[in-house]
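Researcher: We're teaching a course module on how sequence relates to structure. For the next exercise, students receive a sequence and then see the predicted structure as tokens, so they can try to spot secondary structure elements on their own. Here is the exercise chain.
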Amino acid sequence: MAFLKVAKSGTLSLNEKSRALADAGRKVYRFGFGESPFPPPRRVQAALRSAAHRTDYTAVAGMPVLREKVAAFHHEADGYPIEPRQVLIAPGTKPLLYNVMRAFQRAVVYVPAPAWVSYEPQARLAGHQVVRIPTTFEGRWRVKPVDLERAILRQGAGDRQKLMVLNYPGNPDGLTYSYEELQALTAVLRRHGVWVIADEIYALLDHRGRHVSLARLYPERTIVTTGLSKWCGAGGWRLGTLILPPDAPSALHDALIGLGSETYSCAPAPIQVAAQSAYELDAELHDFLAAQRRILRAIGSAVHRALVEAGIRAHAPQGGFYLLLDFSPFSKLLAERGIRSDSQLCDRLLADTGVALLPGEAFGMPAGSFTARLAYVDFDGAAALRDAERIEATVIEHAAKMLEGLAALREWLS
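Model: And here is the predicted structure for the students to work with:
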């Protein structure tokens, strides 16, 4: 019998493997899984408790009041007009990403290398052709307009639609795009009529609060995805949102509603009620977001310094909670130890030191690039929030376990 072969998500696999080792008594430094360490605001938790009795199915697109709140929230946060009719709600962003790809019958999907682990598998499951756009450490892992244009012209799309996925602040690199960089990319996208899925799930965790949504520059073909998992600390609640262009074809909207109705039906009603509280962009929420940014900026900087001191190449993070590590300065040492790929490197690190990293090849990097993703979230988010006003003075305390892991990594490399 033949069945579809779909590899398990690398991030989920590593998280389970790390937990198993820890349960067996091994000391594990969990840099692999990118889960927010912060608890959702108390009022949002209270709203969820109060809605536990809700067992009803909602409209596939989501509760009208929630869609209104999402539209108003992102209008204020991102600075461009959004109508509730543009908003769709789902149980997590992942099904929204897949359904957008599936809504296009035939497409070439342009995916940066590196990029989040699920984009390429989802595109292939949707039956599309995938074209990787390589980036470099020297180019800060950013897609350059010349490389995007070269990929479009070299590959050719024929009668296929052109679709690009752009995630920033980025997973796995923790970097973002400036307004000027987005302008330059927009010129190429518009010239070739490319649709873009702008995965802005980490936008509100831009460490300086300066995220620029691509929808401001390229409103006609930008589909924005986001949700509660990262900025609200509610990953397991599974609440994703999608914002369509203002003049999106009705056929695209109808396809997404149809796909949603045949897959997830709707997001859970209690979660949608709680999300209504989350999407109130008032002073309390502004303070919550500002505290997270300050903490992540301080801890990310401390982790980055430790990496640089160990001789590992990495750019200082600008948003979210990731760093993409480049071990190429140690390629000779790694070769002497029989390590010739990212996966072998991460396997040895976990076995020898307990340091859990995700190999760069899981994100579309060449196997021999000696890159790996580090997530700096192994700290008590609730305690850090209480110390947010003095995080710079207490950062070593909050990041102690991670810095211990990086010391073990440094010793292993030496």
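Model: If you want an answer key for the exercise: The two ends are 50 Å apart (CA to CA). The first helix runs from residue 10 to 23.
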